[in-house]
Amino acid sequence: MRESRGKEVLVPGLLLLALAVIGLVALLEMGPLQILTAPGAYPGNNGPLGTSILYQKLRENYTVIPVTSWSHIRQTLNPCNLSVVTIIVSPETSYTDEDLESINHLKGSCKKFGLLIADEGVESNRVLESIGSKVRISGAILQPHILVANLSTPWGWSGRVLLDKASRVNVLQPSGDVIPIGFVEILATPVAVAYYENVNGVEVVVVGDGSIFLNQVLDSNIGEYPLSFIRSTVAHLCGELGNCIVLMEASKYIGLDPIEVLRSGDKRVLGLLNMVDLVLSLIARLVHPSTWLPPLLNMVNHSIRSLVELNPYFKGLIVVVGAVIVMLVVPRERRVKDAMLEDVAEIDWYGFGEFRRHLVSHGAKLTKQDFITLYDMVNTILRSTTGSTLEDPQLPSVLETIGVSRGEAETFRGFMVKYYRRATGKTLWPPLVMWGRITRKAIMMCEKILEPLGASITRPSKLELIAERGLRSSGGS
Q1: Does 134 map to a domain?
Q2: Half-sphere exposure at residue 230, Cβ-oriented, CA atoms within 13 angstroms
Q3: Alpha helices of 424-461 — where are they, by DSSP H?
Q4: Which residues span the domain enclosing 391?
């Protein structure tokens, strides 16, 4: 007779249902996932007025972080032992006291802090004021709109860029730390539209126009000069190319409701948005429970109320159905006492016996795949004993500390990486390789390098012998 086995349930189904309901309520409280659909100078906007091209170009040389929350980036960069350059392009909403406090915290804690502002409006002035800058953007658009600005910077970049909707940039109190670096001519009169300032060691560059940072400019045939100016400025503010983070303002732009945008049918607004972003934002809104669950619950509630009003016995039916469901679910689950898990014995296998026997037996028949296996094997040994790998440029320095000469270590690393790249198809040089000879040479080099580490390719280590002896004795018992 077949014995039926009860199903052990670690978590009761009713508890899972309760957790699911709690999670659903939390989602409803949080509201739908917001994929920002912003027509302005937002780094995620691929439209003509966005700054996504600038974001991509800067990523070629720097780590670039779009800042959607200044308090969050303050926590992320804590401690901040590197150079930081903050770029603010035409913000649309005001900076809060908390934002300014976070920016000033970065200014005071980072190894080096630079600020690049390109804005024809006045929202950026609060940032300038908070860091002690004497520069302010007037916010009054100069006429005519399209003007040619002559730029000349203290770090050697000079050229001419085309401005659109440029604003005059003023200085509250002239001093030697504030230098005008950009002018336009209006009625034969030079008007300053860009300044460089050193505020107690913090370098600030202010341009009274955000248009030269936008996609429509950088993607045009005149985008070469603005991009050159931006790269030169960021490089100067960074100071160190390899240890610098660029923060791009992404929190001060007005997002649009995708449903309202499509419902309005405003071609002017649609022309400023990237359709992929718009569709993604729309999908995120539609699939979120806060969009469809409240109407569904209202519909169910209305239907139940209608049925109850029409038939007074319906309440009793609901109670009976609920009781039946509980009776069916609860008996299927039984409690299990907590018990300690059994210890699991684990053996570390330190050797590569099979591959070693293969090396010894094959001799001249060693192939490209044997070299790759050898490379992986040596990489594993180096990683476990030194913490470095063959790909790590610091490996020669690490090996030098254990008695290997630096020149020998550099030659070894260069040889292994060179032929590994050739074996894996990452390079076609050298064109002709005799893999048997190369692998044998690599084995001898590896033996010499691994000897100070107590490891070997051609002979078993003491740990391997102990492990093998233990395995043989346990297997025979």
Answers
A1: yes
A2: 31
A3: 435-450
A4: 353-474
Residue 234 lies inside a defined structural domain of this protein: yes
**How many angstroms separate the Cα of 3 from the Cα of each of 6, 285, 388?**
10, 52, 57
Q: Taking the model in full, what pTM does it have?
A: 0.56
Residue 394, CB-side half-sphere exposure with 13 Å CA sphere:
6
Q: How many domains does the chain have?
A: 2
Whether residues 225 and 365 share a domain: the answer is no
Same domain, 94 and 222: yes
Domain termination site, one of 232, 255, 278: 255
Whether residues 228 and 370 share a domain: the answer is: no
Peptide bond into 430 cis (omega under 30): yes
Residue 290, domain member (yes or no): no
Look at residue 384 and tell me if it is in a domain.
yes
Q: What is the pLDDT along the chain (477 residues), one digit of tens a residue?
A: 444 444 555 556 666 667 776 766 666 565 555 555 677 898 988 888 899 999 999 999 999 999 999 999 999 998 888 899 999 999 999 999 999 999 999 999 999 999 999 999 999 999 999 999 999 999 999 988 789 999 999 999 999 999 988 999 999 988 889 999 999 999 889 999 999 999 999 999 999 999 999 999 999 988 899 999 999 999 999 986 568 999 999 999 987 766 666 666 666 666 556 566 666 666 766 666 666 666 776 777 777 677 666 666 666 777 777 777 767 766 655 555 555 544 433 333 344 555 666 665 555 578 888 888 889 888 888 888 888 888 888 888 888 888 888 889 999 999 999 999 999 888 888 888 888 888 889 888 888 888 887 777 766 555 445 444 544 444 444
User: Which of 229, 255, 281 delimits the end of a domain?
Assistant: 255
Helix locations, 183-313, DSSP H: 215-218, 224-238, 258-264, 267-272, 275-287, 289-310
